[in-house]
Amino acid sequence: TVSGDGVVKMEEVVVTATKVKEEAKTLPVSTTVITEKEIKAKGFETVADVLRYVEGLYVQAYGGPGRLTPLRIRGLDPRWVMVMIDGMEVNDPMAIGGAFDFSDLSVDDIERIEIVRGPESPLYGSDAMAGVINIITKTGKGKPSFSLSGYSGSMDTWQTRFSSSGKIGLLDYSLSASHMETNGIAKDDRYWRGSYAVKIGADILENLRLEGTLRFINGDVQYDDFDYRAYKTKDDHNQYKKTDRLIATFTATYIPFEFWESQLKLGMSDTRRKYSDKWDPESTDHYDSGWGLVTDQLKSESSYTGRIKKIDWQNTFHVMDRKNIKDTLVVGYEYREDEGKSTSCIVTASYWGGWFLGVTKTKTRFPFRRTQLIGYYAQNELKLWDSLTLLAGFRIDDPDEFGGRTTYNLGASYHLKTTDTIFRVRYATGFRTPTLFELYAPPNPSWWFLGGNRGLSPEEGESYELGLTQSLFSKRLTFDFTFFHEAVDKKIIYYIDPVTWQGTYRNIATVVDQGIEAGLTLRPFKGLLLKANYTYVDPEDRERHLRVERTPLNQWSASVFYTWKDRVKAFLGARFVGDRVDSYWSNRTNHVNAYTVVDGKVSVKVCSHFEVFVRGENIFNRQYEEVKGYQAPDASWYLGGKIRF
Q1: pLDDT tens digit string along 368-426?
Q2: Digit-coded pLDDT (tens) for 289-329
Q3: DSSP codes, 409-471
Q4: What is the mean pLDDT of residues 479-506?
Q5: Global pTM?
C-alpha cells in the first residue's frame, strides 16, 4: 500500500491463497497484493495495465483499447488462470479455452487485487492450474463520501467516473459508474465502455453479516480484419464486437461460536458476446477459385452466451489458538454449473464469369448445454512458535462428464528471526475440465471442423516451488526469490488430421515449464519507494520439442513512487518484455521483438477536495506488439482532475 508518508508497502493480509485472512509473509504460497492506493498511485485505467507490472504475469493484448486481452501466469496458457471478482469466477465458459478477457475490466471500485501464482485447484477446483487472480471490490466505511473524476487526452479519449461509499446505520455501501470513449490507435478503431457496480452489506447481528454485489460491464469496439499474408491487421470500418458482462454475488457470514465461522456464497457470472460484419469491398473475406468462381461474404453475425453459477459453503474452524500453536481448518462444499449457447449466420454471394449465381445463407446453432461440477475441499494450516507454518489440503471434484478428480496442496514456510529470513516450499496439483465449446461445438464442414469432442479428458498439472524472502535494515530493503517447476499433461489442442485435413480437439500435448521470479523493494527515506522484479520462464511443448508461443523468456519491471507532503504524488515505471515466438495455427516463422515501455503519472492536490493529474503511457513512443501483427498504442498523454466531497 501507499502510506501517508509516501512509502509503498506490501499489504500484510491476504484471503485468496488459503480462503482465510492471513499475513502474506507467513504463507508458503507465492502471492502478490495490489491495493487501491497503489492502483491510484499508478493511475492506470484498466486492471490489465496494473497487472503488467506484476512478476510472473504476461498480458498479451491484441492491439489497442477494447481488444482481446488474455493473461498468462508463469508462461502457462490463459485458460489455466482463474479470474474472480469478489470470489466469483468470471471466466467465459463459451470461449474456446474458457480464458477471461481483461479488455473491458476497469479499475473502478477496486479495494485490492490478490494474485496467487501456482496451482490453486485444491481450493478452487477446475480452471486454477496456473493460479488465481481475485479482484476484491470496496466495502463502504465511515461517513458517506462522493467523488467525481474525469480525464481527456490522446486518441480523442475521454472518461468520467462517479463513486460513493460509506456507512449509514447498519448498512454499508459502495457504488460506482464510469464511461469511457476513444477513437483507438487507427482508423475505425473506436471503443466505448460503461461500468456500473454496487455493493451493499449489513451487520444484521453481532455474529451475522449479509452482503450483496452487482456489477455490469458493457463494451463496444470496432475491430480490424487480419491479413494473413502480410501478417498484420487491416482496417475494417463495419466490423464490431459487443460484450455485456453481469456479475452478481450474495454472501452470508455467520459466526455461531468463537471458534467457528460459516460462510455461504451464491454467485452468477453471465458473459454475452456479439460479433457483426457487413460486406466491405476491401475485406479479406473474398475467395477467388481461379476457375471463374468468386465468393464474397456479404454479412456475418454471431452471438455467444456463457454463464457460471456457483454455490460455495465454507466453514472455518479455529481448532487451537494458543501462544505457540495456532491450528485452522477450512472445509467446504462447492456446486458449480457452466451453461452456454451460441448462434451464427453467414451470408455469401457467388459469381461465375461475371454472372450472379445467388446468395447463400449458412446458419450454425450451438444449442443450450450445461455441465455440472461438485467439489469437497479441506485445508489445514498449522502455525508453531510464530515461525513455522505447515499447510496441507486436498479437494475431491466430481464433474458430471468425467468422473472424480483429486488435487493436493502441501507447503511449509519458516521464519528465521535472527536474520529476518523466510524460507518457503510448496507442492500442488491442478486440473481443468474441457469447456462447453471444446466438448459440444457443432461441426462446420466449410472449415473442415468436425465439431467438439465429447471424449476429451480433463487437463492435469502439478507444480513445486522453493523460495525465500530476506529483509534488511529494519525492512527498508526486502528481497525475494522463487524457483518453480510446473508440468501440464493431457493438454487440449486443436488437432488437424494430416490425411483428411479435418480438425477437432484432442488431449495430446504436454507442457513443462520452469523458471525464477525475483523481487526487490527499497525504502531509502521517507516519501520514496523503489520496486523492481524479474521473471525468467521457459515453457516447452514436449510433443513438438518447441518453446511455447507468445511467452517471453525474460521480463522485468521497475517502479519509483514519490510523495511530498501528501500534496504531490509521482509514479515512474518501466517494463521490459523479451522476444517471443508467435504463430497462427502451424505457422512458427513469426517472431515478436523485445521492447521496453515507460509510463508515469504526477498528481497535485490543489486543495483538500480537488486534485489534478497528468498521466503518460509509453512515454518514449516505443513501437511494439504484444501479439504479432497487432500494433500497441503509441505515446499517450492524459490530463484530468478529481473532486471529493
Answers
A1: 999 999 999 999 999 999 899 999 999 999 987 787 899 999 999 999 999 999 999 99
A2: 555 556 666 788 999 999 999 999 999 999 998 889 999 99
A3: EEEEEEEETTTTEEEEEEEEEEEEPPPHHHHHPPPBGGGTB----TT---EEEEEEEEEEEEE
A4: 92
A5: 0.93
The size of the chain, in residues, is 645
Structure confidence at residue 520 as a pLDDT band (50, 70, 90): very high
What residues pair up with 295 in beta bridges, in sequence order? 287, 350
Q: Given this model, what pLDDT does residue 450 score?
A: 86
527: how many CB neighbours lie within 10 A of its CB?
Answer: 20
618 located within any domain:
yes
Dihedral in degrees, nearest 10, Cα atoms 122, 127, 128, 130: 130
Please determine, for residue 227, whether its predicted confidence score (pLDDT) is greater than 90.
Answer: no
- Cβ atoms within 10 A of the Cβ of 483, count? 15
| pLDDT tens per residue across span 96-110 | 889 999 999 999 999
Closest among 528, 458, 595 to 52, alpha carbons compared: 595
Residue 1: inside a domain: no
Could you tell me if 147 and 89 are in contact, meaning their C-beta atoms sit under 8 angstroms apart? no
How far, CA to CA in Å, does 467 sit from each of 58, 90, 414, 464, 516?
21, 30, 11, 10, 9
Residue 216's identity, in one-letter code, is: F
User: DSSP for 307-359?
Assistant: EEEEEEEEEEEEEEE-SSEEEEEEEEEEEEEEEEEEEEEEEEEEEETTEEEEE
Average pLDDT over residues 68-78: 95
Structural domain span for residue 371: 13-644
Q: Which residue has the cell 468422473?
A: 403
Tell how far CA 319 is from the center of its chain. Answer: 35
User: How many domains are there within the chain?
Assistant: 1
CATH code for the domain in which residue 530 is found: 2.40.170.20
Instruction: State residue 349 phi and psi, 5-degree precision.
Output: -115, 140
- Assess if residue 244 is contained within a domain: yes
Nearest Cα residue to 459 out of 487, 427, 496: 487
206 Cβ contact partners less than 8 Å away, ≥ 6 residues apart:
none
Q: Does a structural domain hold residue 6?
A: no
Please give the grid coordinates belonging to residue 471. Answer: 529483509
The H helix count followed by the E strand count for the chain is: 4, 40
Amino acid identity for residue 179 in this structure:
H
Percent pLDDT > 70 in the chain is: 93
What is the 8-class DSSP label of residue 104? G
612 vs 593: CA distance, rounded Å: 36
386 Ramachandran zone, left/alpha/beta (phi>0; psi -120 to 50): left
